[in-house]
Specification:
- This protein is α/β, with parallel strands linked by helices.
- The protein has a single domain, classed as 3-Layer(bba) Sandwich (Glucose Oxidase, domain 1), CATH 3.50.30.
- It has a seven-stranded mixed β-barrel.
- This is PA domain-containing protein.
- Keywords: Glycoprotein, Membrane, Signal, Transmembrane, Transmembrane helix.
Length: 209
């Protein structure tokens, strides 16, 4: 039976829509389909592992700032560093209630109220070694996406690395540490996944599979 033009168009459309679905669902999911290389998935992103507490022992993905700050792996790297939720969480001033805990460590801060660069500069000013910014407002349109963090066009810069963490990951990390009354998570950053197969990456179970 010879396929009609209509049937060919229909099949092509179904294949095209299926490809779109894979691409969209793969925004936060590394296990998209067989045959893809891990190198193609991770692109310029950075990964880290939480080693403690056990409730958070997974591999997390970060989107580094595009045009400001240092870089994970050169400016900052640690096999057992501390990820410390900043208090207050917005990091829009240098008046941190837990400033002593931020010294030499990675500050976990929330997006909003001031620029990404301002947050990084404030963390650096109190001795923080790096900053991870996240969107924890589940009602935000950006909650399920990685934000491209760019310079705010002011005459300023920072030497510490800055990166964006997916909102759902950031929210669960903060809530879990708060519930456990633990002031920080122990992390290994960065993690080299170049030679790790996509299905072997230990992603958080609360992300879409």
């Amino acid at each position: 039976m010879v396929p009609t033009v209509a049937s060919i168009v229909t099949i092509s459309l179904i294949c095209w829509l299926s490809l779109i679905g894979l691409t969209k669902s793969g925004a936060n999911n590394l296990h998209m389909y067989d045959g893809i290389r891990t190198h193609d998935i991770i692109a310029g992103d950075v990964f880290f592992e939480i080693l403690d507490p056990p409730e958070l022992e997974y591999t997390y993905r970060l989107r580094p700032a595009k045009d400001f700050g240092g870089s994970f792996g050169t400016t900052y790297k640690a096999s057992s560093g501390k990820l410390v939720p900043a208090v207050p969480a917005d990091a829009c001033s240098t008046r941190f209630e837990n400033a002593e805990q931020l010294v030499g460590n990675i500050a976990l801060v929330e997006r909003g109220d001031c620029s990404f660069l301002t947050k990084a500069i404030n963390v650096e000013a109190v001795g923080g070694a790096a900053v991870i910014i996240t969107e924890i407002d589940a009602e935000s349109d950006d909650y399920d996406y990685y934000i491209e963090m760019v310079h705010d066009s002011t005459d300023r810069d920072t030497d510490i690395p800055a990166a964006f963490l997916l909102g759902k990951n950031g929210l669960i990390i903060r809530r879990t540490l708060s519930k456990l009354k633990q002031p920080y998570a122990v992390v290994n950053i960065p993690v080299n996944l170049t030679f790790v197969q996509p299905h072997e990456i230990n992603q958080p179970p609360w992300l879409q599979w």
